[in-house]
Specification:
The protein has six helices and 13 strands. By secondary structure, the protein is an alpha/beta fold. The longest helix is centred in the N-terminal third of the chain and has 19 residues.
Length: about 260
């Protein structure tokens, strides 16, 4: 099976390039599953039910979220009505929404879930290592392969989770920092790994935001609105080939422009 994991979709530019490129990419590359992090899809902060539905219509099979999961007003109510969306699995158990998803195609069941890192992260979360262990244990036998997203700031925490889960899941792929890392690899026992798959959105920016206000904030510390930028829009993500056993056979990083 071939899965494509799309990194943080930022604002309208990110959504538009997914809609423009994903159908053709999916057909040309023979992609079976598409998973996308959508936590920055609504003006760069959070997501709405309307945006979730538009991404599904564009060809995304599952939407994951991160520390901005509750940024849009009312999404804590909407999320329970969206069967293809999951919030981080290590949020408090009282949090609304699904902690994981299981996608199925041609008899292959792919488990998808996200855990939040705790180093330099503001949102309250339980231990990502123990939370990942718990998900895998609680639904053992109900999946053939697993994609675990590590939404975290620290590369050390991401690498540590990769090694912690090596041989038990198909892939551990990182998001949150919006800058792709050059470490795509197969860990021992064929677990695909990448610290950060990069951002889907405007790269002529500072992490997807207009450059001038961000630079200004660094210079004088005064508050400014960080609007989503518009230049050099790219679709970024990781393409992973997974055997019927659930072991990864190949990982490839993709970064595509619309033109």
């Amino acid at each position: 099976m071939r899965l494509f994991f799309i990194g943080d979709i930022v604002g309208k530019p990110g959504r538009e390039i997914v809609s423009a490129l994903l159908p053709k990419l999916r057909a040309e590359r023979g992609i079976d599953f598409v998973v996308a992090n959508g936590e920055n899809a609504a003006a760069g902060a959070g997501i709405t039910s309307v945006i979730c539905k538009s991404l599904i219509e564009a060809g995304v099979d599952a939407i994951t979220l991160g520390d901005h999961v509750w940024d849009q007003k009312g999404f804590e109510v909407d999320i329970v009505t969206l069967p293809q969306v999951c919030r981080p699995a290590n949020l408090p158990r009282t949090s609304p929404g699904r902690s994981h998803l299981i996608l199925e195609k041609n008899g292959f069941r792919l488990l998808v879930f996200t855990v939040l890192g705790r180093s330099f992260m503001g949102l309250k979360a339980e231990c990502p290592f123990l939370a990942a262990d718990a998900v895998l244990q609680n639904i053992a036998g109900q999946f053939d392969g697993a994609l675990v997203e590590m939404h975290a700031e620290a590369t050390s925490e991401k690498q540590a989770l990769g090694w912690h889960l090596a041989g038990r899941v198909s892939a551990v792929l990182g998001t949150h920092t919006h800058v792709a890392t050059a470490d795509a690899a197969l860990l021992r026992q064929h677990t695909a790994f990448m610290c950060d798959v990069g951002m889907t959105g405007p790269h002529e920016s500072v992490l997807g935001r207009e450059i001038a206000p961000v630079v200004g904030r660094f210079l004088d510390g005064l508050p400014r609105r960080f609007e989503v930028a518009t230049g050099d829009v790219r679709l970024s993500g990781a393409l992973v080939d997974v055997a019927a056993t659930g072991r990864a056979e190949k990982i490839e990083w993709l970064s595509l422009r619309a033109n």
